[in-house]
Amino acid sequence: MEKLKTMVVDDEHFVREHFERRIPWEDAGFIWLGAAQNGREAIEMMERELPHIVLTDITMPVMDGLEFAKYVRDRWPKVKVIFLTAHDEFAYAQKALVLGAKNYLLKMGLSKEEILQACTQVAEEIKQERDQEEHIHFLKAEYSEKEWSARRQLVQRLLEGSAAGSELLRHLNGAIALNGRYYAVLSFGWDGYSVSAEQACEAHTLEETLDQRQKQTGQAIEQWEGMSGEPDIQAAVFPYKRCQLFIMLTCPVHRGYAFFQCKLNEFVHNRLSLFKQRLGTDCFVYVGPITTEPEQFSKLVREALARIQEHFYTGLSVMSGPDTGSFYEPGKVGRLEIIAELTRSLHARNWQTFAEHVQQLTQLRNPPYSPNFLLGVAEAVLDTVMEGSEADMHDLKLQLELIVSWEQYGWWWQQVKERLAVIYGLQGENRKVRREIQAICQMVSEQYGKNWSMADLAKAVNLNPAYVGQLFKQETGEYLTDYISRVRLHKAKELLERTDMKIYEVAQTVGITDYRYFCKMFKNMVGVTPTEYKKSI
Questions:
Q1: Same structural domain, 50 and 118
Q2: Coiled coil located at which positions (predicted)?
Q3: Residue 26 and residue 120 in one domain
Q4: What sign does the CA torsion over 401, 312, 370, 413 have?
Q5: pLDDT tens across 444-458, in order?
């Protein structure tokens, strides 16, 4: 342990001289900073260099020892104070202990051994406090790496029905006191979809950003008692998905039901705006009922995470009260039938039928589909049928996990159709593309490395070369040259992800012989160079 710094404050010159010259501070493992003749002078010295231990007289002019000790306690709470007192100052010494002094010593007949023994005892206390702080820091590090992950897995298993309520209680017991308290379960979420849309970065970087925001938000909520100034309120936070949390708030019985209800309102109305500002996006919360029965926690958690779905259609920032049961859930068979229809149309490359099924999913019903059902169908289609690069599929899955509104769900399916347009040549939503244009798309998709000219493509489908470009734009809304570049770029990304080919080899494989032109086009369309993209995989 480092040597601790000491100083003395006393208005008597001989006392200051005794402490400075007669006490072997260095040999005892201390550093002597000097002496002051009153509290005011001591503060000036401490402004320049802060000691660990201060020995101070009580009766002094300008600023006495009690006033000085109170100032030190308020400004430098980690500095330890030992009082030097005379026999007739016992009452003052008792008051000094109330102010946080670690000890008091009678100046009359005080030996150097007694002085060093008192300082050594305080030094040992300082060491124990530091060890405890390091332990707490270690626990926080463990929480961020292990406990956070364990809590996330627990929530998922609770929803799947594979975890018992007793397991949740064990986790909670390590975070909050469970004896004789009021409780409420809240689910809290925010719009991560808008965050991901604004951030032009690789998927793994975006995931790290989202995970960090979620963890920081959870930690801020667990420290809410400090922010509210009310130590009797505790919170335990569990992560769900990447932009949702469920929160257990608790309050002791002696505070009363009305007090806890008031604190719940404070959290919802005051903290919601704070987190909205911190996260830079919209936030929403479901407030569950207050209970005194910990055995109901599993049920309340499932209800809280289900009820927050109301935001999906309504856009409300606060949800509470009884369940309205306003969603339509087709059930397991109905879900499988819808997935089968989508997958069959994709396998058969029947783009028009696929678009029609997607339109049914993205068209409001009365009552509307359950958000869980809609997201489950989309995930199943993505897992079983979709083709494309790992980066594309990973990005679509991540975007799906972040969806919190009906509009975002529609936008997600639009992205899926746009990517299918690149992979398969799918163009148009509700109208049939001319057979010749479909044939051109298929040729380009299958032979992306060929040096296609407008004349070659026109000849292959028996169209006039002067007319084919105009017809392609009219039918698809995209220039033919742009479409060819997009298909080549898509394949280039796949090759960079899945092979060890060099950049120039990838360029040549997709039909671009000019290496510099390929790098420039890649950077313009993807946002990073081919080398940066390969390093990020």
A1: yes
A2: none
A3: yes
A4: negative
A5: 877 888 888 888 888
